[in-house]
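Exercise 3.2. Students should predict the tertiary structure of the chain below and write it as structure tokens, then compare their answer with the key that follows.

Predict this chain's 3D structure.
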Amino acid sequence: MKRTLALGLLLLAILLPLNATNKGEVKPVKNLIVLIPDGASLATMSTARWLQWYSNPDKPKLNIDPYLCGTVRTHSSNAPIGDSAPTTSCYMTGHPSRTGYVSTYPVADPGNDIYPMDPERAYQPLITVLEAAKLLDGKAGGLVFTCEFPHATPADCSAHSYNRGKYEWIAPQMAHNDLSVVIGGGTTLLPAESEAYLKANGYSVYKDDLKAMRADKGDKMWALYGERDMDYDLDRNVNEQPSIEEMTRIAIEKLSRNENGFFLMVEGSKVDWAAHGNDPIGMATDFIAFDKACGVALDFARQNGETAVVILPDHGNSGLSIGVSRCTGYDKLSKHQLFGQFSKFKMTAQGFARKVNEIPAAEVQNLFREYAGFELSEQELHALNNCKDYKNSPIPEDQRSADGVEASMYSGSLTSFMAKIITSKTCFGFTTGGHTGEEVFLAAYHPQNTIPLGMQTNIELNQYLCEVMGFSGKLDDLSNQYFAKHTDVFSDYKFEVIPSKEEGGLPVLIVKNKKKQLTITPFSNIVKAGKKANEEIRLNSVVVYVDKNNTFYLPQALTDYLK
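Answer key:
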């Protein structure tokens, strides 16, 4: 029996990676890269892997496959199913939060909160891993993504709001948070003041200028593409927009010049968007594009020797399944029957919708033959012609209807119709067009192989990130230091919150003593000093205003300027 036990322990030691850990043994490193395929369930990853293997028989595995090490239970503060804002917030801050909250402490919901929440901290901005890396160690911070830059996941790293849709609050915070490199979507969303601030502080700012971004030799850069989000990788014009792989490579090259190290978050943003649209080819191809970015990060980390990489989604989406009841005997279908037609799609649902609206109706069948490998049936063509946003339909818009169109196929949205057409040619199925609550995958690389194993909660995952960065247990102290209520910070001084005279404008906080005055505006790192507000104080964090409680959250150290 003792011999059997000894052999079992030896086998366990062989099977477990050397020095793999959950807690307590993590070795801090200089650089950390976190890669998030937004909304990617295990089924999404599996579909992408099958598609890659079917299309490229010499590539049976994804870049992330050797590093898969566990799962993550990710959720909101008061609900098991979360959206991107609170789920990535928890990865970044260590606190679960509510739907729509961007790195902000949630309002307590007694009876529903999954963990006890402190009502006194409601709406407090929470320091993120990226911000802590800058504040504590002078590291560079970078973001790469394919959505618009104030969107939930990139915002979760570098801004704070109880409303993820308040881009007018979030965008200036991201600009004033002094990130070293930002590459992604949203050319129309960068406020003029924010762009001027960036340029005045040594940043190169490029909009839809791929050639200039590639030629840039500086350390600080914002490069934005598309009015809002970037195109899906399958639809991308390679002469106009970079791949997420290239964006990641450029970001790492620039960030690694910082002698103190860096933190980089890379988001495969539109895996989630395709999942919301039940577009399987968009999901799979954008995940493959994301996996190539993971390959860049992992290659750098292995060669660098001072870099850890963590790869994980923020939540699932769509309930995608490989196999669906409408396909009789689907469990006996060959790989050709399951993935042959799927591999022929050369555009996403959005790409097909856009292209159909660019060509005459007479050319539609040629389009589908060339880019999808089939022709529309009479019923499908009839349904297409009755889509309300099909610009070139031979049926006048006021005469279009769902009459004679199969209910499951008809939709007022042309993109949604295209997604249904694509899916109907596969044996894939969806349960929803929204987020789902299953655990998500976890992959990690560490130069000393001290990686998280097994099932992690989103809170534990944040703890691991902090341990890797060398500031375990410090985020809450930093939040209290840099995001204290103005009523507490200036309790010994005369202060007044002056509402804006413009509708929707921001208030200003005026703080005075006998000789000095501070003029504080929200969502900036610039504070004006002096009776005439003609002096500038530059903070290493941003000031956040919350209208719910009419409170400015700012550094405690601001009182030093009044002494």
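Discussion points: Residues 17-320+433-481 form a domain with the Alkaline Phosphatase, subunit A fold (CATH 3.40.720.10). The longest helix spans residues 280-304.
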